[in-house]
Amino acid sequence: MPYQAGVPRRTIYALSTPPGKAGVAVVRISGPAALDVWQGMVRLTSKKARERGVRPWRLERCIIVHPETAETLDDGLAVFFKAPKSFTTEDVVELHVHSGRAVIASILSALARFPSCRPAEPGEFTRRAFEGGRLDLTQVEGLKDLIDAETDTQRRLALSAAGGLARARFEDLREEIIRALAMVEAIIDFSEGEDIEEGVYEAARAKVQQLRSKIENYLSDSRRGEILRSGIRLAIFGPPNAGKSSLLNFLAQREAAIVTPVPGTTRDILELSLDIGGLPVIVADTAGLRHTEDVVEQIGVDRARNMVQGADVSLCVLSLPEVLTDESRVEIPPTLEPLVGPDTFVLLNKQDLTHSVPLSIIGDRQSWAFSLSTGEGTKEFLDGFAEALRKRYDLIQDSQAGQPLLTHARHRVHLESALRFLDAFLETPAEHVVLAAEELRYAAQAVGKISGAIGVEDVLDSLFREFCIGK
């Protein structure tokens, strides 16, 4: 819960590692009574360490005891982080103990005996880090994304945000808007007979035009950052018995979908989360697209069309012998043509049943020919497809070039808001300079909301609830 002025802040505690059998578990305690917990529960095993007393930032071998009965609860390690040099900027104690369920339960029960301590709420340690200035809002989001990362690209994106790169980019943008605002306010302050250079307002307008172009460039990323954070939605579609389910099984490296020679086997959508070339991909196997009198199958066909139309990328799987013409060219069936868009890759399965086909047979559209039954050409397809996805979605080079990573929808919302205020400034006549200054002030505030420099209490409540208890 957020800190309230005048209300004494209580010390919080929680298990910071996942529950279950493991070598080590970490119990974290943060707040003004953290040192009291150390003195009440930590017994250093080394005589020299006991004589020396508590030394911050040093992992010490110890016995963990009950604060009232002195009963030994576990044999482990403890470390004290002295404020403000800790994650939360408060005094912090971490107990590194065995992860048995009974051990953890006994330690948490013992911590409850301290009147000034209470169990932490989800994300409360991170919230205290934010309120203490250790992290800004983009770093908090990056930390959450890092915990949730399942692929290497997600890890790198999250680490970039958690490390403060996004914070620096957006803060630079806000400062540029403030500099333009300072130029306009100088006109207001010195308008009555004071010396001020001519052309200051025009210079401010030129600066705002540059900032407007910069923000438009940030917003023209096709939502790649948001897509990578949540996963690239990939739909597999095509006629019945072309090998769609076999392709899903190949990508998943397991029998995820039922494969039979009977057309219409797949009726509902089957989704899997996969790592393809380090990118997070949510793959959907859809029903074969054909006209059918079967009511249930037709529902599956309709769902398949909707899935393809809403996907970020799609794979159109065709049976090569059935679409190869006498002129050794491939013709996409008319029923599929409306679904084959700029984000569609064409896959020609069952190459083993016909002669070799060049990749140029479908014009300039990227395509691969292979055989899922023999494995011929499948490695080339997987390598090529992964590279195509990386070229389209990998944002790491953008971030290194100074482009901020818009990994959350709210980043886009605030930038769009700032853009509207900048447009309003440019549309304001020079004689209404006071109103023009207000538009720039609002634009700076909109950008400030991205990092949390401007109040965003509703966003904070929602974000921190998504964290685990001990983070």
TrEMBL record:
Pfam families: MMR_HSR1, MnmE_helical, TrmE_N
Domain of life assignment: Eukaryota
Predominant place of localization: mitochondrion
Residue ranges annotated for the TrmE-type G domain, each copy included: 231-394
InterPro entries: G_TrmE, GTP-bd, GTP-bd_TrmE_N, GTPase_MnmE, MnmE_dom2, MnmE_helical, P-loop_NTPase, Small_GTP-bd
Record's subcellular location: Mitochondrion
PANTHER family, per the entry: TRNA MODIFICATION GTPASE GTPBP3, TRNA MODIFICATION GTPASE GTPBP3, MITOCHONDRIAL
UniProt protein name: tRNA modification GTPase TrmE
Lineage of source species: Eukaryota, Fungi, Dikarya, Basidiomycota, Agaricomycotina
